[in-house]
Design the sequence.
């Protein structure tokens, strides 16, 4: 597998500018990555910039905390798809998971999956116990989302090899894994892939692929 084909070029910082988004798109096209993931405000621009490529426009939903109302999260997802998103990285209801309100967690994911685009569910492994990570994976599989994603990049740490190994061992069907958060070197990306990651989210695609 070519490494570029599993990279999501990502910029989600609050101070993000249009010029930075345009530069990210140019880098994404240079390396022919899988997706470009940006906040919703920039999605129409990214969709336009990627129009003659096979690179998927992607945005985040319920980011970065995940605890907005399910109705608002669903509407955000609908708007994103209208604006061109082919992939959505949504944040799971972390507090509901911890409180074992699993039906709420599953129903919210399923409604977004049913919109018809590829869905990656961010579980924020830094905030979960190993038992909770397994529970999150089970909810995601029941809801038929396409990916378990490790991190927002806004918590105390990002992806680790241990996280990926635990998620991989918990998956019972063909659900994939996206590692994200703090991945800036080719060495770490390769280690995460060896542990079981199918997609890598990074704000530094050039550092990994250059």
Sequence:
């Amino acid at each position: 597998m070519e490494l570029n084909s599993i990279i999501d070029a990502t910029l989600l910082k609050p101070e993000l500018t249009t010029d930075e988004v345009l530069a990210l798109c140019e880098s994404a096209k240079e390396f022919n990555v899988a997706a470009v993931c940006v906040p919703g405000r920039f999605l129409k621009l990214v969709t336009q910039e990627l129009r003659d490529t096979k690179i998927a426009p992607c945005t985040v939903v319920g980011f970065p905390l995940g605890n907005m109302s399910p109705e608002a999260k669903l509407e955000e997802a609908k708007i994103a798809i209208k604006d061109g998103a082919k992939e959505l990285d949504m944040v799971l209801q972390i507090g509901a998971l911890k409180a074992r309100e699993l039906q709420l967690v599953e129903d919210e994911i399923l409604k977004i999956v049913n919109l018809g685009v590829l869905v990656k569910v961010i579980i924020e492994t830094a905030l979960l116990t190993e038992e909770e990570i397994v529970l999150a994976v089970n909810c995601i599989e029941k809801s038929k989302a396409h990916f378990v994603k490790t991190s927002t990049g806004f918590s105390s740490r990002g992806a680790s090899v241990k996280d990926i190994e635990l998620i991989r061992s918990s998956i019972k069907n063909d659900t994939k894994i996206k590692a994200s958060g703090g991945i800036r070197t080719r060495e770490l990306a390769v280690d995460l892939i060896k542990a079981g990651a199918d997609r890598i989210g990074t704000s530094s695609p050039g550092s990994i692929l250059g």
Summary: The first helix runs from residue 18 to 31. The first strand starts at residue 7 and ends at 10.
